[in-house]
Amino acid sequence: MMLPWKSAMIPRSAGKPLRSFLILPFVVILTLMSCAPPAEQEVQWEFLEGPYAREITTLLPLQQAPGQLLVGMVNGDIFSSPSNGRAWTRRTSAAPGMMIHAFVQHPDSPASIYACTAGGLFLSRDEARSWQRLQVPDTAHSLPVRCLSFDPWKTQTLYAGTGGYGIFRSTDNGSTWAPANGSPDSLLRGADVYEIRIDLNRPDRMLAAIGTGGLVISENRAEQWRFLVGGRGAVAAAITHVAMLHGGGSTMIYGTDAGSMYRSSNLGILWSPSRGATSGDIIHSLVSVPSHPGSLIAGTENGIISSTDFGESWRGVTQSLPSAGISLVLGPGTPPTWYVFSPAIGLQTSSNEGKTWSAIDEHLGGTTASLVASDPSTHNVYISSGPTLLKTTPGTARWIPATSGLTGGNITSFAFDRHHPGSIYATTALGAFTSQDGGNIWQPFARPLVAPPTELVAHPWFSSRLLASTPNGNFYSTDRGSTWRECLPFAKTPPARSFTFRPTDAGAVYAGGGVRGVLLSSDGGISWDVTRYGFDQDTVEFVSLDNNDRNICYAWTSQARCYRSLNGGLEWGRFTPPWEIGDRVLLAIDPLSPSDLVALANGRTCYVSTDGGTTWMRILERRIPVTPVSIAWDHQAGRLLAGTAHGGVYRIDLATPLRARGRSQEFSSEK
Question: The domain 38-48+367-666 is classified under which CATH number: 3.40.1160.10, 2.40.10.10, 2.60.40.10, 2.130.10.10?
Answer without folding.
Answer: 2.130.10.10
